[in-house]
Design a protein that fits this description.
The complex is a heterodimer of chains A (343) and B (181).
Chain A lengths: L20 H12 L7 H8 L6 H10 L4 E4 L3 E4 L8 H7 L9 E4 L5 H10 L7 E4 L20 E8 L10 H18 L4 E3 L3 E4 L2 E12 L4 E11 L16 H5 L5 H22 L2 H10 L4 E9 L2 E10 L5 E5 L4 E4 L3 E4 L2
Parallel strand pairs in A: 3-4
Antiparallel strand pairs in A: 1-2, 4-5, 5-9, 6-7, 7-8, 8-9, 10-11, 10-14, 11-12, 12-13
Chain B lengths: L1 H5 L14 H13 L4 E6 L2 E6 L24 E5 L20 E4 L4 E4 L15 E2 L4 E7 L2 E6 L4 E6 L6 E2 L4 E7 L4
Antiparallel strand pairs in B: 1-2, 2-3, 4-11, 5-7, 5-10, 6-9, 7-8, 9-11
Classes of the chains: A alpha+beta (343), B mainly beta (181).
Chain lengths: 343, 181
């Protein structure tokens, strides 16, 4: 795999795996002219390599699974526009968004959240995103893993920097879940359900999970990393997950454009997040109550800190925590833990 | 350190201007007798807020709030104004001769001593802590808040059990700050 740093970044060893700028440029050039044969000379000029090196870069692109036809004498043509989350294709569609400015794309990495954390500590600005076509160590809550199949999902971490108090920061997890849910509905028509705080489900099965990490001083958040995993084009789930997990393709029966979905997601995230900064938690909680069947009147089992009980959800506290009327008559306020549907 | 371990009780000699611990204890009894979880009192610029540690739990059981005796440990207290004074459960157990620094929770959440179940804890008693070092995670709503030490020094005591809920501002660790050169 090609290594090197993406344009606009400071080269640090832990980012050496980012997709090479030239691969990105080549992919974009071919993708945007899918019916045209492009001469080696034009490619050389466009991506900034010598004419004799063009074959090497097209070879590298092929090694990444992109079908490119042709050779140095005839020129090159892409056979099928791949659904790669190419930074330049994304950037072009996100010109007016804070999330289109700094994009770190990896074909393969352990965890996008880990990279985003390093970026956060290194002073990377608000809106930077880290994308991976494949994660080898995708993380979930409590050390669980996230099944991150190659090029079939969206595996992304978003860096947020705002002058907010840590006390209100947990509401960002609702913001992220709402953004995923709405983006999916726009792109595919699937009206997902939100399982508090932010799993996105269809037909009772999860297709998106979100893990948020925060670094804060007591009075002020330094930065927040929102890690989002979406199962998009998986044609099957691993056997151990089929009962609880699904993908958008399995739900709709059709392939879904990850690029389009991701653009919608980042736009939604921007708008919900700005709404949260401007108006506080209230509109976010109200929207959650609108679209989540888990917000109120849902029979739920809560498992937290070794304790497990069944009850009926009873709305959200002003800070976003879930109220549950337990079957034993007590009222519980859930801070963390696993929520599942109960009978 | 030896002396401070025993001083779990607010009625010890340690004095805070304007606060008589005998009276605080009466307040605690009053709270217990009436099943109160929180009590706030303000007089001449001195404000005392008493809150039972059990007021919010991982799944706070309100109806359960027992009118039984309060735990032996004092509940978290915070006083403000006229001088910036802070009394917490943790600082009350430090001796006057030993100023311990308390790392506090910036949010309501669940305390985790390690990154994942079964993993070694971030820190243990006796560790020398550096500023910026992650000492624990507080989780709320699947938001993992990595708590960093804000001073350097020796970790003297953990104040919360793994998996337990914590309040905003609750002490998490006591650190004996390194001597300034």
């Amino acid at each position: 795999m090609a290594t090197g740093k993406l344009s606009g970044t400071t080269g640090r060893s832990d980012r050496a795996g980012t997709t090479d700028r030239r691969i990105d440029a080549l992919l974009t050039l071919l993708s945007e002219n899918p019916t045209v044969v492009i001469s080696g000379e034009k490619i050389a000029r466009h991506i900034g390599v010598s004419r004799s090196a063009v074959w090497l870069w097209t070879h590298r692109l092929r090694a990444l699974g992109v079908r490119v036809k042709g050779h140095p004498r005839t020129g090159y043509r892409i056979e099928r526009v791949p659904d790669v989350l190419s930074p330049s294709l994304l950037r072009r569609r996100l010109r007016d968004s804070p999330f289109g400015k700094r994009i770190y794309h990896y074909f393969k990495t352990a965890s996008t959240n880990s990279i985003a954390l390093d970026l956060g500590h290194a002073g990377e600005p608000h809106g930077a995103i880290v994308l991976a076509e494949e994660q080898t160590g995708g993380r979930g809550r409590a050390g669980r893993s996230w099944h991150s199949e190659k090029t079939n999902g969206i595996y992304m971490s978003v860096l947020l920097r705002s002058q907010i108090s840590p006390i209100v920061a947990p509401v960002i997890t609702l913001v992220a879940g709402l953004a995923v849910r709405d983006a999916v509905q726009e792109e595919t028509g699937v009206a997902g359900d939100l399982r508090w705080p932010n799993d996105v489900l269809a037909d009772g099965k999860k297709f998106s999970g979100i893990l948020t990490e925060m670094y804060a001083k007591p009075s002020q958040v330094r930065f927040v990393i929102v890690g989002i995993g979406i199962n998009v084009n998986h044609t099957a789930m691993p056997a151990e997950l089929t009962r609880v997990a699904t993908s958008l393709r399995l739900i709709t029966g059709k392939p879904v454009s990850r690029l389009q979905l991701l653009v919608r997601l980042l736009r939604r995230l921007d708008s919900y997040y700005n709404r949260f900064l401007a108006e506080g938690s209230r509109p976010i909680l109200a929207r959650f109550a609108e679209v989540s069947t888990y917000a109120r009147g849902k029979r739920v089992r809560i498992t937290t800190g070794g304790e497990s009980y069944v009850g009926t959800s009873d709305g959200l506290e002003p800070n976003g925590l879930l109220r549950v009327r337990r079957d034993d008559g007590k009222t519980a306020v859930v801070i963390s833990g696993d929520v599942s549907e109960a009978n | 350190m030896k002396a401070s371990r025993k001083k779990k009780n607010l009625s010890t000699e340690r004095s805070i201007p304007g606060v008589e611990f005998g009276q605080v204890e009466k307040l605690l009894d009053f709270m217990a007798a009436h099943g109160l979880e929180e009590f706030e009192y303000e007089h001449r610029g001195l404000r005392i807020r008493l809150k039972k540690a059990s007021a919010v739990t991982n799944a706070a059981t309100r109806a359960e709030a027992p009118p039984r005796a309060l735990p032996r440990q004092p509940p978290a207290m915070s006083g403000t104004a006229p001088d910036p004074m802070e009394i917490t459960a943790a600082s009350s157990s430090a001796t006057a001769s030993e100023e311990l620094h308390i790392i506090k929770s910036p949010i309501v959440g669940t305390f985790y001593a390690a990154a994942s179940p079964g993993a070694p804890p971030f820190v243990k008693i006796g560790d020398l802590i550096q500023p910026g070092q992650v000492v624990c995670i507080i989780e709320a709503m699947k938001l993992m808040n990595e708590i960093e030490a804000d001073v350097s020094g020796e970790l003297v005591r953990g104040l919360v059990e793994n998996g337990q809920p914590v309040e905003y501002g609750q002490g998490l660790f006591a650190i004996r700050p390194a001597k300034k050169k």
